[in-house]
Amino acid sequence: MRATVIHGPNDVRVEEVPDAAVRTPTDAVVRVVLACICGSDLWAYRGVAQRQPGQRIGHEFLGVVEAVGAEVGSVRVGDLVVAPFVWSDGTCDFCREGLHTSCPDGGFWGSVGSDGGQGEAVRVPYADGTLVRLPAEAAGDERLLTALLALSDVLATGHHAALAARVRPGATVAVVGDGAVGLCGVLAAKRLGAERIIALGRHTARTDIARSFGATDVVAERGEAAIAAVRELTRGHGAHAVLEAVGTEDSMRTAISIARDGGAVGYVGVPHGGSAGVDIGQMFNRNVALAGGVAPARAYIPELLADVLAGTIDPSPVFDRSVTLDGVPDGYRAMDERTALKVRITF
Amino acid sequence: MRATVIHGPNDVRVEEVPDAAVRTPTDAVVRVVLACICGSDLWAYRGVAQRQPGQRIGHEFLGVVEAVGAEVGSVRVGDLVVAPFVWSDGTCDFCREGLHTSCPDGGFWGSVGSDGGQGEAVRVPYADGTLVRLPAEAAGDERLLTALLALSDVLATGHHAALAARVRPGATVAVVGDGAVGLCGVLAAKRLGAERIIALGRHTARTDIARSFGATDVVAERGEAAIAAVRELTRGHGAHAVLEAVGTEDSMRTAISIARDGGAVGYVGVPHGGSAGVDIGQMFNRNVALAGGVAPARAYIPELLADVLAGTIDPSPVFDRSVTLDGVPDGYRAMDERTALKVRITF
């Protein structure tokens, strides 16, 4: 089969690799129908996050079950399914508590020895604990299928940020980051009843999506000017809930600074600035909480799926470009150069 | 009147100062009956926290109302009252939400121009928003009065840490720090229904108090050994809730490392290690939250007071030495040298 392989910084290639196959009785093989490139893949692409040359890449996909091991009971060959961005056994303490990302049997697509999502097929460990069935009818609806692909990561991650930031009905929310996760954070905050949503971003195409997702205000400034702008919009107080969806030192500093006293920052941007942006003195004096982390997407998919199917939320606009598998290297370049927001891969 | 004045590192003196007096219609003057020295006063005493030479010091006291301004309605001359460690107006958005420490009219006892708690009397701004009445009968009960003094700061602060760490019935809790706040954190965690409470500390006199307050386990190790010991006590998982009551880089690092995935660190130790102990990468991967800060003691006093009066909690054992006002410099030395846990000042 063919799949995307990362050989080094700025070097992803689509190559022939061994076919995905059931290896243990709890495995399934999923023939990928739709996948995509994540902002977090760019950390590897840029060489900031280390990868071994030859590792697979991609962690967001949906597709059709092609084979199952003898112990798989929840999905059958032919089922349309979506995978969260980590696999998990579904039975341990953490999975039962909804923190599937801490499953001791869990793992990340594309880690050494595993298939990545940006390929023709994926061996899925712990299929019962990992995959979520989608209605077969969705297969024929490209817009819906695209929206469902967002369950894999960005919508679930935006939702995690909103929960971690304690978004409540009536809350004033600020979202730092106008990437796909930040935009999904706007959607999630709106879904949780936020009254006012301030989106920080300066790419009009993106902030237009933010507005369509429920943002009531857009702040195009950065750094100190952004902090001042958010404070001015909030009677000097800041936002009850701040979603941090970037992961740099600056974005964390901004997020903490625009939180209202007693508020919370829900951070889901993979931290690449160390702890330098975490101003503990400011947090202490103002009782600003910091929560979040890697999103347990598997826990959230059922509830978000219901809303996507009902049409009450539609994250599909975050995908603004499509490539075929051969076009994946172009897709990375486009996202790296910020000419594309989020690239969908069709098969 | 006489009060404690800080002139520089290791230099606190008891001196004649201007009498406390009502200056605005919302002021009261409280004649101090009982005060104490706080672990956080030592940061100033050691020169780590800056003070202007001549500033007053001390932020925990209870006493009898001696005078009130024309607009004071909630307390009367002769009332026995306790003060939280910051004053607050009681009417702003933050006070009404229970975050009195963010009151824009609030302030800290001993800040420039204000009286400190370690003196014969204190001018209390916003008396209605600040003071809490105590039953007159308590005046004759030294043990009870001592317990009530803890409402001013350490008991409220331990409670804040427990709330921030999300202590729930049945939870496994770890407490970093065996000072008065850490010990009160044990008491607060027990009160909130913690099933297992691991106290980290190596001064037997203190960990004995921790056990009497509800600690089920004591870990005397530090650093990596402490982390390993807590993990061993918790099937490798760590504690659901960790109370950080020290404020150094090491203590924060330990606190985050012993939290269970998905758990929370409630920190109330005044941060003196910057953000260096905040391992954001570890927090991210394991979804460990960090919350807390300066405790809004005023918000908690009524509920904690009820339990102290009912006898269901008794923080008085954290006070292990008494001095008169003249003995305050000796009290600082004793706490600085760790020969005293918490020094009470009688008048």
From TrEMBL, chains A, B:
<dbReference type="InterPro" id="IPR011032">
    <property type="entry name" value="GroES-like_sf"/>
</dbReference>
<dbReference type="Pfam" id="PF00107">
    <property type="entry name" value="ADH_zinc_N"/>
</dbReference>
<keyword id="KW-0479">Metal-binding</keyword>
<feature type="domain" description="Alcohol dehydrogenase-like C-terminal">
    <location>
        <begin position="180"/>
        <end position="306"/>
    </location>
</feature>
<protein>
    <submittedName>
        <fullName>Threonine dehydrogenase</fullName>
    </submittedName>
</protein>
<dbReference type="InterPro" id="IPR036291">
    <property type="entry name" value="NAD(P)-bd_dom_sf"/>
</dbReference>
<keyword id="KW-0862">Zinc</keyword>
<feature type="domain" description="Alcohol dehydrogenase-like N-terminal">
    <location>
        <begin position="25"/>
        <end position="135"/>
    </location>
</feature>
<dbReference type="InterPro" id="IPR013149">
    <property type="entry name" value="ADH-like_C"/>
</dbReference>
<dbReference type="Pfam" id="PF08240">
    <property type="entry name" value="ADH_N"/>
</dbReference>
<dbReference type="InterPro" id="IPR013154">
    <property type="entry name" value="ADH-like_N"/>
</dbReference>
<dbReference type="GO" id="GO:0046872">
    <property type="term" value="F:metal ion binding"/>
</dbReference>
